[in-house]
């Protein structure tokens, strides 16, 4: 890697926009920015009318579901899950499927400027393997359910798999492990408590779904006499090291509880709309003190891993719902997709371009037809940019995409494998 | 142009998906599809793992505002208009600005598979000129206001300009003209009536804004003692040849009125969310009988002319608002962005691939990373595709983009002009 200086029209450094400077990188670490560069030991990457920005951290995904992209659209959630997704998973899921599907997802992430995913799925060893092989960061979650699946027999067995994961990746600098009790309707309070103990024992994070649908809230109240948020609070999840995905069906009192605990929340606006789950009250959650982050959810329900579009949906929906266009401005939404996510996932030295942080960033062309003219580069990222505008991606100082070409992925092979599995799933 | 046969994995012909066939084009007209082709007089375009689809018709735009893309985001409508957009327009607008900005918009439309825009603006001669020069279709509207602008002194003067437009483009097969009274709060009932007479006399369409904001409805009730829809009904606009943009703030009775008149409606979901104007009740309007179409509005409020994203927003928002994921399925939304729009704009032989229609279509790669795997190509268009997946665009038999390269536009010049005007606007 060595010493690299990237010259670009815009550099978003220390959360501020700088113009016509060099970003200095030493191996995997950001050294600083400078206006002039006389030190000849730097390799220079000249990117002209482009911008260097922190790359995205997708705070809630199910990467291997990328092979189910578009398998079953326009269907009710129950039918979607029970008649399409679960049967496909039960038929297809194994280590090979998971590895190949994650590589497809990794390619999609790289081309759209995402350098880390907070994932929840099964056969997770191969998710971590795939991400690490291509050079992406990941918080790789091992799923936990009350009932048996192809993957494990019972809660202890699920947790045993996660111990294996921790062991497997203990010296991988890109991969962290989390424990993922699925949701309050598939995991008992007792098993949630086991996950909390496990998370403390192994110093890893908990990642779970919360209040995604009205059905879930009604069901949990029926079972336990209290809402999912209050149940989680009682179990201790709100005081644990946890990130919650969705968090839609909550009332004002619950917003206050989540805010006061500074809960980490992964908003999945596109997926929630497409499955007609509902609308996150993101503005109220933010004002109450929650740490909001942006996520795509899986490709089966999104149907992309495009964080540009996800930011745009998130910002616009909040403006619309609040009938106030000043709500959720571009800069704070971009921070949610980068800095807030790094904080939520305990990713030290990530999520921001600043001295001493890891050299994780994307370079975006401001010279493409859809990006012209340019008045405010940060608002262009949120409201205008498309994946095709990303030209280069670096993670931990390593270049994963250079001038729109993949460096660490054999894209022809990825496409062939996607078609091979496509045929198998359809048959 | 001559005889052309396009071979692709998918062809959406007669509103149905066909596989591994040839689409046959004779000069500017679609001849049919065939499985085998022995006739050697056809030039063959082999597109492999791609799809040929009707291209988009954007039913409400202000194309020259493309130069104001991102000029003023995250602002209240009043402030956005009065402190940013109107001053910029008043300073910048002239024939050169309008021509150059429309060419930028045209390039953006072509690269994202749009072959026609229903536009409303001023200095419209150069909008028509620009579209015609690059080979796009347009319904080019001349604006009408009660008050004077740089462009005209009074309503008769505005209408005179539109007569000039009609004369100018009377033998242009790509350009149609419309009369565009701006909105009920900027045009008096008397002037709306003049526009109706004008539209009948010249056999052209009326294009107007309707019920975009709550403020507008309150204001119109204050002025005239009735809502904008009821005012328009009384004036006769609902019985005239009209297309209405936005149509958000309406009640159930008004939905019934608009439905019974089969009103043509241009839904602008992204723009409405970004400006926090509100939510169109599209599902109710559809069920009542209105003819729904999809539009981006101008680049100043969107901030793109991306019809893929617009379909996706439209479909998802209706699912979310109705808490029903089966509402607005991919196929009907794709029809709104093509066939319904052609009907709304009286564009004969447009909006569908069928025998005898004009050869207007796009070719989309299903082989790109973000498009794999493929289960339902039409739902992929609505929920997955990006502009970068469009490889070829044909209008009236003429190729405007070939293998992702512009054929009729000097893209280097377009970029230089965008930067030139960008500098002028900022200064």
What does this protein structure show overall?
The structure is a homodimer of 427-residue chains. Chain A has 427 residues and is an alpha/beta fold. Chain A folds into two domains: 3-55 and 357-406, Urease, subunit C, domain 1, CATH 2.30.40.10; 56-344, Alpha-Beta Barrel (TIM Barrel). Chain A has 15 helices and 17 strands. In chain A, the strands form two sheets. In chain A, strands 1, 2, 3, 4, 5, 14, 15, 16 and 17 form a nine-stranded mixed beta sheet that branches. In chain A, strands 6-7-8-9-10-11-12-13 form an eight-stranded parallel beta sheet. In chain A, helix 3 links the parallel strand 7 and strand 8 (137-144). In chain A, helix 2 (95-111) packs parallel to helix 3 (124-134), helix 4 (155-168) runs parallel beside helix 5 and helix 8 (252-260) crosses helix 10. The longest helix of chain A is centred in the N-terminal third of the chain and has 17 residues, at 95-111. Chain A starts with a strand and ends with a helix. The mean pLDDT of chain A is 97.
């Amino acid at each position: 890697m060595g010493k690299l200086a990237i010259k670009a029209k815009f550099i978003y450094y220390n959360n501020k926009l700088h113009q016509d400077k060099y970003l200095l990188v030493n191996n995997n670490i950001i050294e600083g920015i400078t206006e002039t560069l006389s030190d000849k030991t730097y390799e220079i990457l000249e990117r002209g009318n482009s911008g260097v920005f922190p790359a995205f951290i997708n705070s809630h995904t199910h990467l291997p579901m990328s092979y189910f992209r578009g398998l079953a659209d326009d269907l009710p959630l129950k039918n979607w899950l029970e008649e399409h997704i679960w049967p496909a998973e039960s038929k297809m899921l194994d280590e090979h499927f998971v590895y190949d599907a994650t590589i497809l997802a990794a390619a999609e992430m790289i081309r759209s400027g995402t350098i880390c995913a907070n994932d929840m799925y099964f056969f997770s060893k191969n998710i971590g393997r795939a991400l690490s092989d291509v050079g992406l960061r990941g918080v790789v979650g091992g799923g936990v359910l009350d009932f048996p699946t192809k993957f494990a027999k019972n809660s202890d067995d699920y947790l045993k798999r996660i111990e294996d994961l921790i062991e497997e990746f203990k010296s991988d600098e890109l991969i962290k492990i989390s424990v993922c009790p699925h949701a309050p309707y598939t995991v008992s309070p007792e098993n949630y408590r086991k996950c909390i103990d496990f998370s403390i024992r192994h110093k890893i994070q908990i990642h779970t779904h919360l209040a995604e649908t009205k059905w879930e809230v009604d069901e949990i109240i029926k079972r336990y006499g209290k809402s999912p948020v209050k149940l989680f609070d009682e179990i201790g999840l709100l005081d644990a090291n946890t990130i919650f995905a969705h968090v839609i069906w909550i009332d004002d009192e619950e917003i206050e509880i989540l805010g006061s605990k500074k809960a980490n929340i992964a908003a999945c606006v596109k997926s929630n709309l497409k499955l007609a789950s509902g609308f996150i009250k993101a503005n109220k959650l933010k004002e109450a003190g929650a740490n909001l982050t942006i996520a795509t959810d899986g490709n089966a329900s999104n149907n992309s891993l495009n964080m540009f579009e996800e930011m745009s949906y998130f910002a616009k929906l909040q403006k619309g719902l609040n009938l106030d266009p000043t709500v959720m401005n571009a800069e704070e939404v971009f921070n949610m997709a980068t800095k807030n996510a790094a904080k939520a996932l305990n990713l030290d030295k990530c999520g921001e371009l600043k001295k001493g942080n890891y050299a994780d960033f994307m370079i975006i062309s401001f010279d493409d037809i859809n990006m012209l003219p340019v008045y405010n580069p940060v608002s262009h990222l949120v409201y205008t940019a498309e994946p095709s505008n990303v030209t280069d991606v670096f993670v931990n100082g390593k270049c994963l995409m250079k001038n729109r070409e993949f460096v660490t992925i054999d894209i022809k092979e990825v496409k062939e494998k996607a078609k091979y599995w496509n045929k198998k799933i359809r048959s």
